[in-house]
Amino acid sequence: QVQLVESGGGLVQPGGSLRLSCAASGIIFKIHTMGWYRQAPGKQRELVAAVRAGGDTTYPDSVKGRFTISRDMVKNTVDLQMDSLKPEDTAVYYCNADTSTAIGRGDYWGQGTQVTVSS
Is the confidence at residue 1, as pLDDT, over 90? Predict the structure, then answer.
């Protein structure tokens, strides 16, 4: 079993910054892709940023240039630096890891952390 623990959410004013962190633990053979998703009330969960084992990153247009994902392959951690935050970034943010373990490969999720952008 793999556990993902997130930290770093909170309340920030528009234009401000927040940094989210996520640490994976358990009997992990390999984490292929780590990423962040978000879900606002009444909306579907959407990808915010992802980083593959080789270092390639993916961002949707809505956050490109404002958010930066980084990963530590040794510590099995992933961070999301969020700058120039907008009210529409308000959501619960979830860490995700596509992981191979002794029982196979699967998607694992963190419990979520609230990000609120408001004046």
Answer: no
